[in-house]
């Protein structure tokens, strides 16, 4: 019996002329799979050590690099998803370009941290691009996919996640922000093309299937979790599914055999070019049911800004979704 969440060997998938049917099925059902033989082991190990060191610091030290609405990179401990506050702390960063000012907020007390995260970012971008090619070829039947749109290292970003056991805010701060919800991270889709997710062995990540069942994305050593984003669903005209996922709170991650533990994860969000116009792609939708475009064109810049805005403040409605651009819907 095939696993609902298949493990794909990246090098074999690139070299094979065969279509990975289990990968195709997973992308149509819930949008998750695991990736092995990716070549990122060294960078991942260094990243875990630096992430644990950063989040292990005192709150006032971490807040020296706290992000704001005008500075979206750095540390944050009160993010909202689905208008509810998540039980997590994050650190966001992007690429460093030699021809541009570095807009990241790097900790001054740990110069090794920047070096490690930049190396992790660079190798993640390469693996994400390779993975996208495999997905294109799987859906198109191994045709030439060189003309299809690519992601951009300039618009992509990475995040360190730390899910503590208790609220990272003190009692006074808790009264000034939204209350914690019932999940460590509430259900959502990622806005970009695909996400490479490193997760520790704690567990708690779940995906929603097409028949509305939550399934565990169980940790597995030496693999990367891949989940599809909103842009992949639009590009494939709903053939492939943007992964709806959530993270259970500590009590939900516990079992008779295991007590609740803090959790670490690190996603790399692979995104389109900043000026990209997003719409169903003829080459991919040609094999979709009906072959009729289901979305009107929209810009990546507009879409991602809507998601960013909702991270900081409850705007009174759910964050922007691709359903807004569905043809025939208001």
Characterise the protein shown here.
The protein is an alpha+beta fold. 29% of the residues lie in helices and 22% in strands. The chain is globular. The chain has helices at residues 10-15, 21-29, 41-55, 59-62, 111-140, 171-174, 230-235, 250-253, 282-285, 300-312; strands at 7-9, 32-36, 74-76, 80-81, 84-85, 89-93, 151-163, 185-188, 194-199, 205-208, 214-216, 224-228, 245-247, 263-272, 277-278, 298-299. It has ten helices and 16 strands. Helix 3 (41-55) crosses helix 5 (111-140). It has one domain: Jelly Rolls (Sandwich), CATH 2.60.120.
Q: How do the strands and helices of this protein lay out in sequence?
A:
Layout: E1 7-9, H1 10-15, H2 21-29, E2 32-36, H3 41-55, H4 59-62, E3 74-76, E4 80-81, E5 84-85, E6 89-93, H5 111-140, E7 151-163, H6 171-174, E8 185-188, E9 194-199, E10 205-208, E11 214-216, E12 224-228, H7 230-235, E13 245-247, H8 250-253, E14 263-272, E15 277-278, H9 282-285, E16 298-299, H10 300-312
Parallel strand pairs: 1-2
Antiparallel strand pairs: 2-12, 3-6, 4-5, 6-7, 7-14, 8-13, 9-12, 9-14, 10-11, 10-13, 15-16
Helix pairs in contact: 3-5
Question: Could you write a compact summary of the structure shown?
Answer:
With 330 residues, the chain is an alpha+beta fold. The protein is 29% helix and 22% strand.
Strand content: 15-25%
The helix/strand class is alpha+beta
Helix content: 25-40%
Assembly of the depicted chains: single chain
Instruction: Name the poorly predicted regions.
Output: none
Query: What would CATH call the architecture?
Result: Sandwich
For the record, the count of structural domains works out to 1
Q: Indicate the CATH topology.
A: Jelly Rolls
Rg to the nearest angstrom? Answer: 19 Å
């Amino acid at each position: 019996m095939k696993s609902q969440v298949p493990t794909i060997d990246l090098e074999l998938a690139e070299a094979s002329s065969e279509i990975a049917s289990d990968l195709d099925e997973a992308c149509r059902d819930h949008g998750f799979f695991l990736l092995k033989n990716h070549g990122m082991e060294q960078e991942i190990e260094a990243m875990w050590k630096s992430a644990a060191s950063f989040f292990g610091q005192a709150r006032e030290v971490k807040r020296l690099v706290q992000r704001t609405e005008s500075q979206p990179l750095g540390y944050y401990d009160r993010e909202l998803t689905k208008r509810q506050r998540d039980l997590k702390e994050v650190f966001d960063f992007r690429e460093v370009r030699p021809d541009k000012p570095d807009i990241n907020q790097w900790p001054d007390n740990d110069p090794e941290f920047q070096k490690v995260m930049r190396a992790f970012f660079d190798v993640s971008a390469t693996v994400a691009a390779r993975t996208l090619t495999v997905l294109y070829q799987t859906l198109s039947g191994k045709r030439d996919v060189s003309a299809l749109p690519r992601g951009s290292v300039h618009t992509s970003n990475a995040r360190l996640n730390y899910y503590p056991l208790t609220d990272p805010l003190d009692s006074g701060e808790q009264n000034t922000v939204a209350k914690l919800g019932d999940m460590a991270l509430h259900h959502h889709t990622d806005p970009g093309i695909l996400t490479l997710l490193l997760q520790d062995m704690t567990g708690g990540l779940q995906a929603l299937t097409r028949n509305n069942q939550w399934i565990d994305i169980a940790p597995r050593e030496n693999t990367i979790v891949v989940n599809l984003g909103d842009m992949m669903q639009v590009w494939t005209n709903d053939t492939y599914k943007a992964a709806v996922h959530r993270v259970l709170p500590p009590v939900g991650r516990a079992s008779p055999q295991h007590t609740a533990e803090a959790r670490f994860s690190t996603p790399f969000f692979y995104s389109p070019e900043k000026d990209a116009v997003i719409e169903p792609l003829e080459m991919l939708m040609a094999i979709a049911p009906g072959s009729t475009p289901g979305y009107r064109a929209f810009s990546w810049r507009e879409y991602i800004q809507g998601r960013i805005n909702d991270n900081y403040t409850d705007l009174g409605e759910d964050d922007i979704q691709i359903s807004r651009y569905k043809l025939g819907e208001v």
